[in-house]
Amino acid sequence: MIHQFIPQHYFNTIGNHSAVLMIQDRDTVITTTVDARGWDNNGDSAATRGNPMTGPFYVEGAMPGDTLAVRFESITPNRDWAWTTNMLAPSVIDPNVSVTLSASDIVRWTVDVEQGVAFLEDPSPSLAGLKLPLRPFLGCFGVAPTNGQCISTATSGQYGGNMDYKGLVAGTTVYFPVSVEGGLFYLGDGHALQGDGEIIGTGLEISMDVRFTVSVQKGKTISWPRGETDTHWFCIGNARPLEQALQHATTEMFRLLQEDIGLSSVEASLLLGQAVEYEIANMFNPAYTVVCKLSKSFLSTVARIDQ
Amino acid sequence: MIHQFIPQHYFNTIGNHSAVLMIQDRDTVITTTVDARGWDNNGDSAATRGNPMTGPFYVEGAMPGDTLAVRFESITPNRDWAWTTNMLAPSVIDPNVSVTLSASDIVRWTVDVEQGVAFLEDPSPSLAGLKLPLRPFLGCFGVAPTNGQCISTATSGQYGGNMDYKGLVAGTTVYFPVSVEGGLFYLGDGHALQGDGEIIGTGLEISMDVRFTVSVQKGKTISWPRGETDTHWFCIGNARPLEQALQHATTEMFRLLQEDIGLSSVEASLLLGQAVEYEIANMFNPAYTVVCKLSKSFLSTVARIDQ
Amino acid sequence: MIHQFIPQHYFNTIGNHSAVLMIQDRDTVITTTVDARGWDNNGDSAATRGNPMTGPFYVEGAMPGDTLAVRFESITPNRDWAWTTNMLAPSVIDPNVSVTLSASDIVRWTVDVEQGVAFLEDPSPSLAGLKLPLRPFLGCFGVAPTNGQCISTATSGQYGGNMDYKGLVAGTTVYFPVSVEGGLFYLGDGHALQGDGEIIGTGLEISMDVRFTVSVQKGKTISWPRGETDTHWFCIGNARPLEQALQHATTEMFRLLQEDIGLSSVEASLLLGQAVEYEIANMFNPAYTVVCKLSKSFLSTVARIDQ
Amino acid sequence: MIHQFIPQHYFNTIGNHSAVLMIQDRDTVITTTVDARGWDNNGDSAATRGNPMTGPFYVEGAMPGDTLAVRFESITPNRDWAWTTNMLAPSVIDPNVSVTLSASDIVRWTVDVEQGVAFLEDPSPSLAGLKLPLRPFLGCFGVAPTNGQCISTATSGQYGGNMDYKGLVAGTTVYFPVSVEGGLFYLGDGHALQGDGEIIGTGLEISMDVRFTVSVQKGKTISWPRGETDTHWFCIGNARPLEQALQHATTEMFRLLQEDIGLSSVEASLLLGQAVEYEIANMFNPAYTVVCKLSKSFLSTVARIDQ
């Protein structure tokens, strides 16, 4: 079934809030998200700033210990401008380098969805020729966390949240560990594009039209968000410091190779050691995000012994 | 001028050792390196283990405050096997996951330079089909550090060293800050290929034939190694923790954009924020390595105001 | 007014739960806490494990932007035994050192409140003579956090929480930033004693009788918990990595010296540089805790210029 | 034998330099050190800035694998003034707090050795009453490192170096792992006093008269510097990040309790968990320093099973 859902209110925390819609396994939802400051497709303030979330969506049958898969069919900017900050974050620069934000800290960009590019609305001469290709994704989404917690959309954890990973574009399927009945899926914080690490603290912040389909993997238990594209499997770790985020992501991939693919720890190590790829998704939020990736082309050569 | 240089001895530290060869600006050197344990092209032990270095090469005219550019024309395995360890390093995995190395900690791989692939010599059934594409590079190279220091080839710093960055393949030019007369360039620790992060502590360790050309940039001062490929500019940061390595690399790129390209700090931030790429080169050595990259395609759109 | 409060239920999160008691500014509460696994003074399971909290107490007049002061008049073990784990946490030991917990991971200690000592119930010969002096404190307490969050009592933040700081004994006054009406004060997780860092993951875990008095400082805004003993002022930082916890604590002390004492940033630096003391409170929980202290003996020599 | 040694030159690296004096096991040396910028007892510039070292002293019989014990009998300022910086280091403060050093970055203090106090030479009114008790120690000392390395006195490692631990006062014995014949002991960087963490980047920097006695522990192998006072045993870890420094120090203490005292890993954990103390020695240098301490009063209760 396909649901058209128009949000009436938004949440700035991810947790055990009342669901806005009950959906079935395999259902599709078409909805919208406002930007990180709550501005909608008309540029109107529709929600309180700080990554307001559309949702939560209750998925029938999803129970603690299951995995919720969310496939994004489309993530499309629904207005023609975005905003960013204009200065590197202190967390990505040597401590003795000054990176004070100017008073007017928001810069506007034109977003041309048809041409697939973005450029500054009012560039300085040096940046007048800069056109960047769009790569729209959602910066913040996930499911209700464990223990009845209700956590700010500024941060992230095993439940997802504000991961700001630029690889989470349309065509990607993301898997979350379910901690409460119905999973309670939230989404928002669209970016028209972003560099690695979200190093100025924002992508091109924008409101979105989103279409996604859920499915429940009964009895499948994972510890951290996983994902799949046409070319790669990946696992996401969210934590500070950056090492710990990388450790979580690598550990989840290590488990995937052992539990799902049937490799031994030595086999998984030999494969990962020479074939692993990492992406630094964000080094700005309270929890940093690292993604551990493995090409399907290598995985396809790995035979399960029991096959 | 082209020098054919056959190493007679090797160093396990990078510092103010006596030069093995004096060369001129623009000279080319053709030489060899032994592997990380000192095994040469015949598999004989030619040097003490721990990244023994070929060199140092004294480059006439290179003085403290200058930059030494080294362009690698070729880096080619000169034997048909390599070795790796077989278990993830504790630094990349959650602390509660056991990753004890087995007693026999070395695994041998066949390296087929003609076919451009590597595979396990004695694979388990699961990995029997695994073939990985070669991407030969040098794990450890650099110039003498500041203050007359002499530092183990286990680690790295502003002078280069054991960075284990898989992007340093043939065709790349690397730039080092010169700290002593002649620069004193060392090289070694060849890897036939490696994943991001060197997460099992080794790439495919192998001896190499190497050809490189030096040039001195008089009066050009940089703080961290920089590099250039056909498609990207990059800057390398070496430190623990991983955040600090990233901060050094980003700061060096921030400087490059301001000092070499003429951008303001706001312009550099706007560009990097949406276009930066990071690679995690190693998260195994005493100093971790992060690479901050920027596509030349974006840089080419950026006009210098004074042009 | 003095309230005798007997808990009927407990919370494993700190957040906007319904208050169990409304109290006035300057009121005193006499109550009890169960231990970290929910075992009460009789050793019965009274609550779900994971630092179950007594409270929350709603303090009339406390509003966001105010500071809530809590003075602990007494914290007294109300049973004669405690428990600990028996192995160093992986977070405090080199990654290559094995610290696997044994199957039976709980060790019982006798707690003799009259003699003021604790000793192992069933010691090995080597530890048969070990008697440790009691120093009872609460490991976890604080007020509701910002933004309607509801956060597990496993961790901590600007609102307090699971700080496990052994200095928070009777006689100490702790100050919290108020984020919701009434502040909503929670307390629990008593320790009969503990070393620095909570490096085996527990203190001597025990249930407690507690007496405390609240007071509201209207219009006084702080960012991190502060505290006061007879001899010291202190500020608490909670974060990972350990550096960040130290930075939060130091920054709060830096602010205290400037805003409350009237020092300039140079004067505060000169004083702190030579007189600051740090304690590592916990290096086990999701957020580590560092305490920045300054002796009142030095502060008393510092004249406010305007005095 | 007692040697009076007057330094003629100084080193800014610790490594395999030619010894300035050969001494025997159990010999005592009376000598002097200049301050961190090379200023001597007369305030004259006697050496290049950056912690110039007196030494190295070659101790007959000290061989790799042994331990060198150095007992400091006296460490006494030999002039009446010291200097400090005047602003918190960026490494100890939140990244968004400005801590720019003023142009004139050196502040002078009067050091009154007879009265045992220090005070600012030219205080602002607020600090006019500040008198701090002297606690003289050496910030930087140690032995030649492994592998023929020669390392800047800015940093530290397993060989000692720039640890800036305020506990290393007269009366303390420090133990170092010997890596080269003769050990090669260096010393310098005196501080008349200092707070925890060396958080403004200096103690009260001053030249010193020093008297110390060496002894060689044949066949005794340690991994990190250890030390002993009248009241405590301690182990020192030097690394970044701060967690890693703490891990090294704790691991060395864990080994000490097992190898020297004969405890099992569980016994050592039970003892350390409730009795350990930490000090943050420096959070300013390239390697941070954490000290893990254990009171001799607890150790004295621990019987060796085999006694």
UniProtKB/TrEMBL annotation, chains A, B, C, D:
InterPro entries named in the record: FmdA_AmdA
A Pfam family recorded for this sequence: FmdA_AmdA
Lineage top rank: taxon: Bacteria
Protein name from the UniProt record: Acetamidase/formamidase family protein
Lineage: Bacteria, Bacillati, Bacillota, Bacilli, Bacillales
